[in-house]
Design brief:
This protein is an alpha/beta fold. Helices cover about 40% and strands about 15% of the residues. The strands form five sheets. A five-stranded parallel sheet has the order 2-1-3-4-5, with helices on both faces. α8 runs parallel beside α9.
Length: about 425
Amino acid sequence: MKGCWKKLTAIAVVMAAFAASALAEEGVTNDTITIGAYGPLSGPSSAIGLGARAGLELAVEQINSAGGINGRKLSVIFEDDAFSPAKALAAVKKLVEQDRVFMVFGLSGSNPTIGTLNYVRDLKVPNYFSIASAPQITHPFNRYFFRGTANESSRYGELYSEFITQFLQLKRVAILSGVDENGKNEGDNLSRYLEKWYGIKPVMRAELKIGDKDFTPQLLQAKAADPEIIALTTAAPEASIIIRQARELGIKQPFFGGGSTVDNVVIANDGFAAEGFMGPWSVPLFPDSQHPDMAKFREAWSKRNPNAPKGRPNLFDLWAYGDTYVIAEGLRRAGSDLSREKFIDALETIDNYRAARWQARAHLRPGITLEAQRPEFSVCSASTGCRLRGSRSGPAKYLTIYESIRRGARVPTMNGLRIS
């Protein structure tokens, strides 16, 4: 009889342990929350993933050093997608099926991200997309998908067209756009809103590929069209080469770059050839700002990345860092009895949140996700760096202008604000 009771007790203990395991949320233990992330650490778009990973890791280090979240530390597994949809899908499958992460943090561009959507759409695993602007992320609505700092690509078309036509007062626009998802979408939407809202058709448009090194054919087409401005909807490495080659070909028109082109690496690589380059900046402060919050971030980032290449930290360092804090806030609000459903509910309560002055304000709502705060205008010079110069009150709520103006040149004004 005594032996029978021992057997029954042992069975009960095993069953209780099995039940507890069955009830436990994937990726959550008593002391750890495991997040899976992916982005390009190799290939022509590695600046995206390397920057995003560095920003993510710095934020996680700070959060864990401050005690973690409700008694748990964050753990991150980061996979390289090499900017490939197939590799991104394989990475996400590994994170979900093998590593069994709590959530997936998308830190890649639109092309790779789209390759994962059909797989993750019905898994009921939270996905937070920080960088990709593809509309498929939030259309159709999915309770488990959140868009981070990057706005949907159609918003960029609205803002770019408004800035070019209403602020710069230009009508002859040439567009050089990438064939990748982000570059193509931004180019399509810029062209669409130029015509829809302002009755302006681009004087020419040519496509290019990420990783290309010679853009002479596209630039000669643009030169022949005699535009007033050339819009680049591609990535920063390609934009840097295009601007330099354009000046070598005697093209003097200014360049307007899409959000992914605005990077200190353009100034670092091109020097004074980059004068006149403009583009949107999606957070309130530039990396070289002397604002105390940005200075604090830059000091911590530099300490952790002492041998970083020129142009860093970049936009993706900032985006991933800020979005990691938004995720951490959602986890904190979800409470110690953490589940994916509670995390989703908690994210949807976030309103007007940011961890530092330079970060965009997070307004997470079902189907809306993160909304950047009203922007400020800025000027960047190849010799002096970037400076902020006040706020715009017009309908383009999310656009910060990065403008490189040669010292001593005429400086434009807007709403009585001198940009200098």
